[in-house]
Write a structure and sequence with these properties.
Elements lengths: L19 E13 L2 E14 L6 E9 L17 E12 L24 H5 L8 E9 L3 E10 L2 E11 L6 E11 L2 E10 L5 E10 L2
Antiparallel strand pairs: 1-2, 1-10, 2-3, 3-4, 4-5, 5-6, 6-7, 7-8, 8-9, 9-10
Length: 210
């Protein structure tokens, strides 16, 4: 059973159901031209906090042994192969001021503003949701800034900006959907990549680890 951390910053309460380690599996199926590339994968996602008003996020995924995995010996069963990883930060979207640290390592010069539930409630938008910002970095030279909203156990995100290094594969936009359903974290990810328009890419179902 999930219990709310008494030391959780008030701004993270709307995101609190994400906190923990989740593990499960999913399916990737992405159409490039006439070719549909698909496989099953295992995944672990972790959300944590360090007392500041953002969540730290990490995700790793591996190919489930099958046609796309390799065995080191013909007599050995295929071993999972690392497929994907990303790290990032999630927070409520609001203007930062004197009560927030930064930029860089500059400390705040006044008390934080959103320290109570009542103060955080003033951040709800006209739909009754909280606007959020998510920054993600992948080791293949791609960085993403997502904007979206969280309303109860549902999160909708869309890229506001994608930064690619000169050596990264072509990738231009994405949307992500997360939801808490029957105590499982369900997610779906659409991408526009390799010359394709925005289309279905991957989805998964993860259970919280005790």
């Amino acid at each position: 059973m999930f219990e709310l951390d008494v030391d959780l910053p008030a701004e993270l309460v709307p995101l609190s159901w994400l906190i923990g380690v989740w593990e499960g599996s999913g399916v990737m199926a992405y159409k490039v031209g006439d070719d549909v590339r698909e496989h099953e994968f295992g995944q672990r996602i972790a959300f944590s906090h360090d007392g500041t008003p953002h969540l730290q996020y990490s995700s790793t995924a591996w190919l489930i042994p099958g046609d796309d995995t390799d065995a080191s010996d013909d007599d050995e069963a295929p071993q999972p192969r690392q497929l994907f990883s990303e790290i990032g930060y999630w927070r409520l979207s609001r203007s930062l001021g004197d009560g927030d640290d930064g930029p860089g390592m500059l400390p705040r010069t006044s008390d934080p503003v959103f320290q109570t539930a009542d103060a955080v409630e003033t951040l709800r938008n006209e739909r009754g949701a909280f606007d959020i910002e998510v920054q993600l970095v992948q080791p293949g030279g791609v960085s993403e800034l997502y904007l979206g909203e969280i309303k109860g156990p549902r999160i909708d995100l869309a890229t506001d900006a994608v930064l690619r290094s000169a050596t990264a594969k072509e990738y231009s936009a994405a949307t992500r959907l997360y939801g808490l359903v029957d105590d499982h974290l369900l997610w779906a990810w659409d991408i526009a990549a390799l010359g394709q328009d925005l289309r279905t890419h991957a989805s998964g179902r993860l259970a919280r680890l005790e």
